[in-house]
Amino acid sequence: MKDETVAKQLLNGVADVETDGVANGTKTHNDARDCDGARKRIRSNHSQSVGVVQEHEPVHDDIPTRIQILTDWANICTFLGAILAILAMASMWNRRYYLGMFLNVLANIADILDGPIARSLPDRHPVFSVVGCKLDCYSDLVSHFVVPASLLMSISDLNSACVALASLYVCCGILRQSYFEVTGRCAGGACIYGMTSDYMVVIYCLAMHLMPVVGSHCMVFVMSGAVLFMMFASLTFSLRSRRYDGFGLFTVTLFNVLLCLSCFALVLFEADENFGFTARILLVVHLALAYPCYFRFVELNN
Question: pTM (2 decimals)?
């Protein structure tokens, strides 16, 4: 009876969570605060029930199975993003860079959409949201950090300096995920410190549009500079990212869809004699749309 009571209290503690949290602050930026609150309520209710906080103690009554978690539509979207990111990483190592970019932006879109999908499911089990926080965190680590690191190592032919830089970048991602997991949001939940990690995919994909112009050797330096900037942007306290939802969510999704189509065009026309000109035109278009559609949510942290 005591275990049953604890399980019910744990479930009641997260009953108001309807979103798929973003442990690194991506997507609509509404989800991470809910997951953080859910974790606190779990610990609080468990502490009141058993007199001690045991965060990892298993409670099995009325908890969905792992198979049931895999059938949740929002979590399916998260797993789809993870699969696309792994395929993108494989494409990078196979030197199919534009195909890898296309797959990685698709993964970014899946990352943006799984939160709205979660909120559209009225009868969704509350535990799915808490588990979804962790799933999203690990998926984003692959998509936003491991894939760009793989690109840098591949395009540099495993140059020692670039391998070291790529390793530091992945460690930066691990630190960012862990730090946000503990500290949560700033300004009462209105923003997070630094750029949210979904921006990392956009930054390196825009940089890669220069490859037909500058060549692969110069692109190593361009990508190294992009990775250094992404490390700063993800860890700095000088910048912060505001939450986006409603029309802001629409513009962010639209920009990512257009970038995805641009990467697909690069895949199709890679062998065309006007490939360099096409890449320059696409880069100019995306740079013109980048701030009004996406980067306007990043601001100085005064």
Answer: 0.79
Those residues whose C-beta lies under 8 Å from the C-beta of residue 61, and which sit 6 or more positions away, are 3, 4, 7, 8
CA 28 to chain centroid, in Å, comes to: 11
Question: What is the distance, to the nearest Å, from the Cα of residue 131 to the centroid of all Cα atoms in its chain?
Answer: 16
Instruction: Report the b/e string of 200-220 with b at 16+ CB within 10 A.
Output: bbbbbbbbbbbbbeeeeeebb
Tally of CB atoms within 10 A around 147? 27
196-245 per-position pLDDT tens digit: 889 999 999 999 999 998 988 999 999 999 999 999 998 888 888 888 87
What tens digit of pLDDT does each residue of 97-112 get? 999 999 999 999 999 8
E-only strand ranges, 95-220 = 191-193
Give, in order, the Cα–Cα distances in Å from 139 to each of 174, 247, 270, 298: 12, 25, 29, 23
